[in-house]
Each structure stands twice: as C-alpha cells, then as structure tokens.
Amino acid sequence: MMLDKLKKEVWQVNLDLVRYGLVILTFGNASGIDRKKDLVAIKPSGVSYDDMKPSDMVLVGLDGKVAEGTLNPSSDTPTHLALYQAFPGIGGIVHAHSEYATMFAQAAKEIPCLGTTHADHFHGPVPVTRFLTKREVKADYEGNTGRVIVERFAGIDPLGTPAVLVAGHGPFAWGKTPDEAARNALVLERTAKTALGTLTLDPGRRRLPGYIVEKHFQRKHGPHATYGQKKEGAKT
Amino acid sequence: MMLDKLKKEVWQVNLDLVRYGLVILTFGNASGIDRKKDLVAIKPSGVSYDDMKPSDMVLVGLDGKVAEGTLNPSSDTPTHLALYQAFPGIGGIVHAHSEYATMFAQAAKEIPCLGTTHADHFHGPVPVTRFLTKREVKADYEGNTGRVIVERFAGIDPLGTPAVLVAGHGPFAWGKTPDEAARNALVLERTAKTALGTLTLDPGRRRLPGYIVEKHFQRKHGPHATYGQKKEGAKT
Amino acid sequence: MMLDKLKKEVWQVNLDLVRYGLVILTFGNASGIDRKKDLVAIKPSGVSYDDMKPSDMVLVGLDGKVAEGTLNPSSDTPTHLALYQAFPGIGGIVHAHSEYATMFAQAAKEIPCLGTTHADHFHGPVPVTRFLTKREVKADYEGNTGRVIVERFAGIDPLGTPAVLVAGHGPFAWGKTPDEAARNALVLERTAKTALGTLTLDPGRRRLPGYIVEKHFQRKHGPHATYGQKKEGAKT
Amino acid sequence: MMLDKLKKEVWQVNLDLVRYGLVILTFGNASGIDRKKDLVAIKPSGVSYDDMKPSDMVLVGLDGKVAEGTLNPSSDTPTHLALYQAFPGIGGIVHAHSEYATMFAQAAKEIPCLGTTHADHFHGPVPVTRFLTKREVKADYEGNTGRVIVERFAGIDPLGTPAVLVAGHGPFAWGKTPDEAARNALVLERTAKTALGTLTLDPGRRRLPGYIVEKHFQRKHGPHATYGQKKEGAKT
User: Fold this and answer.
1) Per-residue model confidence (pLDDT) at position A36
2) pTM
3) Which chains form contacts with chain B, at 3 or more CB pairs under 8 Å?
4) Contact C205, B107 (CB under 8 A)
5) What single string gives the DSSP state of each residue in C109-165?
6) DSSP 3-state assignment of D25?
C-alpha cells in the first residue's frame, strides 16, 4: 500500500469534519496530496464515517485515474483535482455542506469581512463563484465546479483566502495540509454564522476598516507573525 | 412474534430520530411495512424512548386493526396507513416535529430548492399541504391528514420528493426503508435550516437553475447515478 | 427529615432542567408541593447543580416560613408560593431563563398558537404578563411577580395553559407534578423557537384555525383523549 | 515554580471556556492576577487546549516582561495588562470570540438591557468601544485595544458591568476571580443571544424599566443582596 501516512491523515481529517459538526450522514469529503508523486488521497464516495478505515482512502492521479483502491472515490474528486492543479501551494482540501456557509452559498453572496476572526484567517471577503452554465453542468460538472473556483480566484492568493463558496452549492476550504484545510472549514462556518447575525442586527453593515484587516491578517500570516509558538521573530 | 426483523429495524429508527436531534420527549414516530403481509410495524403511543423495546412495536393492518401488540399504536397511525396505501413504492415513514421543518410547516410555506443538498434529495420544492377543513378534522383527523398529503402529491413522484410539510403541523418523510425515511427526515431538517438562513440573507431568493437541480437529482437517483459504491454504471 | 420522596423528585427535576438545556450555571429553579401538608420543596438559592443533593431541597410553608432546611430557599420562592395558592390544581413549578421563551418575554409578546405542538400542550397563546409597577417592585418584588401572573390568568385555566411569560424576565411553567412542569418548560422552549422561525418567514402569520387547535388540545387533554397508553376510552 | 495555585486556576478556566462552548480550536484566552506580586498568569499563544498543562501558563509582569515560562504568552496579553492596571478591583479576565457577543461586536452595537438575566449581571447596557484609529493599530495594537476599553469605561464601574465588546472584534469579560470572569463571559453570550432574538421579534425594543434593572442588579450585587447562601443579611 502506498502513502499510508497521507491516507491516515486524510482519514483522520474526514472524521474531524464530523466531530466539528460540519457534516452529517455521508456528506462532505476531505483529501490530501503528495506533491512529489502527484497522487491525491480522497474519501471514498457514500461510505459511512463509522465504517471508514484509513485503507479505504482512494489514491487518484491528477489525470483522474485511480492509482490504488477498490472503492469509488468521492464524486467531487474532479473538483479537488482542478484545485490541486491550479493552486500549487495547497496540500489539502475539504468540502462540506456546513450550515451557515451553505446559507451564504445558496444566497450567492460573499461573506464580507466584518470582524477580526474573519481577518485572522481570510484576507478579504470569502468569495462566491458564479453559477455554472447549462453547458458546463452537462459536459463535466464536477471538473467545471473546480474551474469556476479557479476563475474566481484570478488575482487572489489562494493561501491568503483559503476558502470559497460555490453559488447554490456550498463551501470548499483548503490549506497547506489536510488538517489546516479542516480547521479553515471550521473557522469559515463560525465566520459565516457570526456574519449572518451581524447582518441581522445591521443589514447595511460595511466591512471592517482595511487597516484592522491587514493588522490581523499579518499577525497570523505575515513575516512578522506574533501568534503561536513556532514562528521566527515572535514577540516574547 | 411476527416480523421480528422489521420490528427491530423500526425500533432502531425511532431511536435514530432522538440521536439525530429530530424529536424530544415522546414526540415523533417511525414505521415500516412488510409489503407481502401488508402489516405495518409502528411505535406505540406516548412511550418513553428510553424504555422502548423492539417487541413494543405494534403490528397494524392496512385496515387499521392491530394484528399484534399489547400497547396502543401511535395516534398518527391512520396517517401512516393512508400513505402506505397511496404510495406503493415506500417502505418506511417518519413523523417528527423537528424544529426547522416545523417553522416552514407553521408558516404554510413550501421549502424552495435553493441548493444542491436539497436537489440531491428532493426533486423540486418540498410541498406543503393545505389546512384540513373543519369537517375533515372532525370526521377522521389522522386519516384525513394522510389524505391531504396524497392529494398534494397528485403529479409528484413520492420517491423523487420523499417528504411533505403538513400546514400548521410538521413534516412527514418516507423512503424505500425505515432507515432511508429517517435519513430523509434528517436531510429535510438540515435543508429547512439552510433555506431559512438563505431567505434571511435574501428574502426574494429564487430557486436554483433547473439544470443544476436536474444534474444533482440524477447524480444520486437517475439510471446513471455516480454517487456511492453500489450503483451500476458508476464512474471509476 | 420530612417529605423525602418529594424532595428527591424536586431535586431530579432541577437536574432535568440542565439536561434539557434550559438552564446554565445556578440559574433556574423547580419546586413541588405536598397539598396535604401545604409544604413546598424548592431548590436552594445559588447552589451548583453538580453539588446539590436531594436533602438540600428546602421545605417552605405557604406563608413563606422555612419548615426544614439549612440553606436559603430560591430567591424566587415567593413567586412559587403565590402560584400554588392561586392555582390549587398544580403540583409543580419550574422557572428558567431558557433562551427562546426569554426572547418573547423580553419582547413582552405572547407566543401565538402557530402549530399543533403548541396546541397539544397550551390551549391558546402562551400569555405574557404586564410589567410590574415601581411600587410593586419595591414592596414585594417576587411575591408581586406571582400576583401579576395570577392577574393575567383571570379567565384562563392554568392547567389548560400551563406556562406564562413574565414581561422582561422569562418563563414560568407548571403542571400536576414537578416532572410535568419540567416537560412543559421544555415544550415551551421548543414552541418559542419554532414560533420565532415561523414569524421570521412570515411576520404577519396568524394563529392556527381554531378547530385544529381544539382537536389537538382535546386529543391529549379531553375526556376522549387518544394519546398515550393509560387514558380511558383510548382508541385501539 | 511560582504561583502554582493561580496557574492551575487559570488553566482550569481556559478549559471551562471550551466546555461552555465559548471557544473553538486555540481561540480565546483567560488570565488571573496575583495583586501582591503584580504577576499575571495567562494562557500561552496558539497551544491546543487538549495538550495544555497548568505549568504551561505564562507569568507576566504588568510591564509585559515574562517572569516565568518557556512559551510565548497569548498575543492578547497587552490588552489584559492594560485592564489589570486600570481596573484594580478585578482578578481575572477572559477573551473569547463567542458567537453571539461577536455578532454585536461586529455590528458595533452595545447590548441593551432587555431583561432580568442581563440586569442580574450587567448594570446597564454592555458597552461597545470605538474602532481603533490607524495610528493606534500601527503603534501598539493589543495595548491600545486595552486603552480604548478603559476609555469607554470612563464613569462606569467595571465590576458593575464586567464585560465589553470591542468594535469589529469580540468580547472581553472580567471578574473578581478568573472563574467569575468565565461565568460572566458565559452569561454575556447567553444575554447576547436572547437580545438578538428579542430584537428580531421587535426591532425597536427599548430597555427594561430602570426600576426593574436596579432591583435585579441590587438583588445580586447590593449590600442587601438576597441571592445565594453566603451574603450577610440574606433573607431566610
């Protein structure tokens, strides 16, 4: 068996999605990529989280061909592959129909940056894609879902804004690792919930002043990051 | 004792309703049918979920007569029987007063198809019945509740749209098996919650483009279904 | 020690309030009455639910004097006593600041009867009291809280509508027993939550047709009740 | 090791924030102060709650210098220090991005006193700060966050109103001890949630009559407090 460590990591992250309250039943899927072998480990389609084992993770090449595994990979696999191809810096992807992010996706509205939790994780609004055309749905639905995401990220750094809402569908989140992708999906859900509440209190609410957004984003992401324990140059 | 396997399945599904967060106290009920014997196994009325045993499930004929069991069947039994008679393809029914589906039922509003989670499970909006008339309430309330559901499904495939909202009351969901009925009830609740949020963000929100609805519905239900592991013709 | 059985029942019901998600920290209180001895067992004030023992329940006479117990009774005791005196049919009372019922209480709005879950338990809207006057607050705040509840129930059967919202404060619920009072408090909370959602979907929503309200209320409460296992004249 | 008891208390309160549902992942932080030694024990930055030990709490002087500990203190430490310096009566501080309090903070709206739960804990509205200026963000962001809180509390007793919303950010709560600070953060979250619901039901809702606010606040805080077991002069 190839890439046992990656498979175990992807399996664990799929279980985390349940633990975080982001998925129910067999919904949702997580994947991770080995960039040296260009192989993606992904959740099998429609398998119960209770029964799933690390060895059930399916290995798929970037061309979509199954390299190892007896189960069908997630039906959303072509979307994952399109993102791994277009965003070389990412190492893991999570897809869920989590409640609050899906409310915004269904409304085809981006999540504006209304607070510092948002700014800590997403550099600007969480973007929403356009709807796919009839032709795109018919030809290669899941692959084209990936392509409209990539199209929407023209000019946006995918590691600075590691999530997107697909209009009428739900969120995808990613990160340098599968675990980071799952944490970003959790923060996205929390961010969507608090944004909905803020917009209920003040429907015309505008985004946070830009200099506060920048401060928070750089505090966690910039070269002078001061959050956590392992960054170079951290304050003491 | 007859139909022990069905009774156990129905008992388990009744407990699942609690686990899924769809019912509290003794609310809600699930049933399953043996189509060869035309016998329905259903939860007894007003019994605590903690104390309930598989053998407590009551067997009822389609004429409403108890065939086996010492407890009273659920007071909603005539509604279940009306649905089993009118919808020959279904094998299980679930009734709950789950929170978000009940919000729509109380507003007498159908749940519009605003996203792909909805489209994956319900082919079009989740319909709402009319209110029963005074005469219908007086004569045979529970039976007539079933009849207004059947009336509302004129021209709708009950397995394509396996749930309904009874105006001023709450949801019924069904499926090929009792377990599928419970999962549809859970998805219905999730769908209602995200629809409420989407309508809060955009009160005039219209339904998803029809070609996306069709794509998702056929992906899970059509002859060329690509979701899961057991379907013929699944993509690899 | 007197009335050990009642104390244990009241202790258990206080713990149920936590289990039902109706109270946090030391908020909320439940009591029960022995109508022969005219003694009320009630939760002590400000004691942690984790530490509380059945023997900590305080026995209080209808005149407000402690008959047994070393701890102070709940500061809301005079409210409980006023209700026990005015409503001779009730045997238990629960007070909580549960979230959704409190939202309506703070808005000083009654909960309209929008659905059958409501109608099964509350015969008409759940009423809201007026605000206490400055004089009433100053003189005997907790006792007068009971008195404005009793004033509001002029012409209403307290066992037909076993709950009230105190304006700007929160709900009180009651029943024939402490356990029934707790279950009514839980149903009240659920009813308030679904009503809020329904009113969000349709702010002008009017109450359920009267004949449906009557049917549901009588199904559980009337002489021809058909719900549960122990009622005379139940359908089979 | 110094101040082991304080460290353990602060560690416990940090875990309570998770148990109360106020924080996710590594968000949030709690601290406590030894007023004799003027040393603050605070959560380390970005460490998982599962792995955190009492000895990981970092000791920091009021000048911001680490007195003991190998980990970086929370990046919000300068905010805590500014509050300890300005509010000599407080012994513990909690910062969380709890959902409902954050909704108000992001809307830059104070939480009006709409009910008695609020009045029991917060004497008047929970205030919201102004946004920091660009200069304040650039120069000493976390320290200035503390300073705008202190500025907002001109004329307000910090122990009478033991919480604040920082505009666009989230809540800080405090108390005489770290444990009291955590309980105030929990009540704040509950208060924000019920306020949002009340404002949804009645957007123009005004605050509770002042004489009811005073009654409740004094019932728990005043010299004639009647709540709980340990106060002098409590009613029996």
Assistant:
1) 97
2) 0.95
3) A, C
4) yes
5) --B---SHHHHHH-SS-B-BPPPPPHHHHHHHHHHHHHHHHHHHTTTS-TTTS-EEE
6) coil
